[in-house]
């Protein structure tokens, strides 16, 4: 509470306003005031989120406005899930540079000019026509984390003199709290419910406080930064429906921010859900602006500005490295810079790491620049999709000439064992980044590697297959053990993966000229499935032989009885001549049938086909 | 009914091939002290026939009234219970099953079934023969653990049940199990014996068998009596009256393997290797055991190969066969062998013809 009071004193210069706002469940402040992270800290006690007053001194004092009765019977436990902030003011107490150097003007934004302009135009138009126009009041901004989506909205709003009202996601209820609450008789509502209620209210009544604004010269913008977590299909449908309604009937300009996580980051399908959500909202009439990752150059510009203002001398090369390592995430870049400046010894290590391998610098392709991030103590871990990693292994890109050949300490290999340096990280690292597991990686490589060998290279094919066979042996070596030793299993797994990948890279000495290849799903999986199925069938046929008096071995059934029975069966039903052909045809037909069905499967599964990387 | 089944000797007296073994078994049963038995020998040599005849000798025709059951066994394995489904074939006197069907859980099967059999021990009217017989097939495919537990249960319940084990190679049965059994080796019948049996079948069917024809079938059969009789029957369906130079139809999968072999000989390239893989998959899907595929493939390749290369090729086949047993996915290893062969053969062709 104390903290909140402090903010009230520091930021709100209109005490009368406060009284007014008490009754409403919304509050607002003038564009210069800043109500940044305080409500979060204070709403710890609030299990329920209301449209409530972030400045509420005590909600019990509330003087009867009608709105209270409308939607806050239990207002007392609800501090705001809704905060208002406009513009940005710098507070000296802020130590984080990210907050300290929040962009205040359009010029300071690192986001691409065109995108900013686009958003700005949309706002101007909406704010102008607010009264007449009814529909299409929703703007959808998408982009990775840290590309400045919220910052852009805030800056533009303050530029246009509009107030940003932000839906703030309620704090999740932890289990102890939940127990406590239910003991004290409070009712639990899910966060999604709360969001739905909120949207419902917004649709019906718009933003209430605008009526208190005294003539409302300032226009309001609703910002929904954090969509509630929708887990599972039902919840997702609800969220979708509710946002749909919002898009169709929002009264005031509303901005919905959707953070796209990289598709490779998570294995679940939630990113796909977000994409669907975007599409459906767009269909409903929402306008969409997609923010790209911030370019290295503009991150560099911002970082050097910060350095100037903070008076720390970081040389341009290091700024450059940080900017590259951030992967277009400016928030991350700034934090890295701050961390880097705080710890002087890091600077040394940074220069050291960037300076060591001289040949690294000579390689100028994009991959390497990204990879340098790994030597940085403050880099971000990149993730790759499994298909990307497989593509790297299969295409086997190498330098055209060896640059370390001059090194005298280099271990001299016989010519047939020597390979040019790889144009990628150590394969293990790549595997690690793509979260590849040994078995599927080996299966995928086995399925696809032959396509990537040159037509003449039979010896290479043998080397590759023999390494794959080694990998399979390693993978099997622990499967029969009675007690599982996870540590050993781990080591065996990773060494098997390493053997298979390195085997493929080493063995493919004469790669076929690079062209477009689709990566197929291992047919082996399908084969194994049908094998299991056939085996089960065969078990039931086991009593066919021996006149039902004894069971026979499966292999005998498969290799001797089945062919003969098939043969005899055909013979009896069909003519003599057609027979010979038909058994063969049958086999061939099976073949071709399997082939086509497989092709279909492949088409389905290799949506993320790989082009030449 | 197939001829193999129709002319299978039902009693130990009627056996045509392993008469000496049959007589010994008969004596053994007559003395009423039947030890555990381990029958081993190559496929098609008559192990099963002897076992069935032996059971009949022991228990009379009642042993032939069997019913097939798909039984689920609930096994208590320490912390959890495992459900195992297994096909068994049982009469009042004996139970037959393939424990290796249970995969890596085979040891539970062995313990559990023997325990259960020991519990409901049949009592004869005379109070004699208070034991049941358990026939276990494919013992060589059991895991080492299962064989250990088999050993233990064998000792524990030896008063109430007798085991008849059946396998192809005794080398994969642990020493401990082998020493607790009377080992009966069943040789593959000689070609003359096979000819004799074929002629017997021919006479019973009232067929004219030209001279030399039976010998040809016997030669092709790889000394497997079952193969021989099956081939004889297919020939009968294919063409009758027989001619002595009549073609003996091969098994379809063997034909397919020889097709693969000629594919390999025709072209050696990664692309061809890929096509071969597709064909190998086809074989494997039809439950042809990978070891047999590899063996047959080697056989077909050797037929067409220059003598100079045979040694090396055999070496690699053995190497990858071993790998295959240790490994998980057979195709990886078969394919490695094919690739190695292609690479050797291509080198040879280049060296010879430039």
Describe it for me?
- Chain A: Residues 1-55, 581-613 are annotated as: Disordered.
- Chain A: This is AAA+ ATPase domain-containing protein.
- Chain A: It comes from Camellia sinensis (Tea plant).
- The complex is a heterodimer of chains A (613) and B (354).
- Chain A has 4 domains: 80-290, Rossmann fold (3-Layer(aba) Sandwich); 295-382; 384-519, no CATH class; 525-608, no CATH class.
- Chain A has 25 helices and 6 strands.
- Chain A has helices at residues 2-11, 15-23, 38-42, 66-71, 97-100, 113-129, 149-160, 175-183, 191-205, 232-249, 270-283, 296-310, 316-325, 330-342, 344-355, 358-362, 366-372, 386-395, 427-433, 438-448, 458-476, 486-507, 523-540, 554-573, 576-605, and strands spanning 82-84, 138-143, 163-167, 220-224, 254-259, 287-290.
- A 6-stranded mixed β-sheet of chain A has the order 1-3-4-5-2-6, sandwiched between helices.
- In chain A, helix 10 runs parallel beside helix 11, helix 13 packs across helix 14 (330-342) and helix 21 (458-476) runs antiparallel to helix 22.
- Mean pLDDT of chain A is 67; it is low at 1-93, 210-216, 263-267, 350-376 and 573-613.
- Chain B folds into 3 domains: 3-185, P-loop containing nucleotide triphosphate hydrolases (Rossmann fold, 3-Layer(aba) Sandwich); 191-238; 252-353, Zinc Finger, Delta Prime, domain 3 (Up-down Bundle).
- A 7-stranded mixed β-sheet of chain B has the order 2-3-4-5-6-1-7, sandwiched between helices.
- Chain B is globular.
- Chain B starts with a helix and ends with a helix.
- The interface between A and B is large, with 75 and 72 residues.
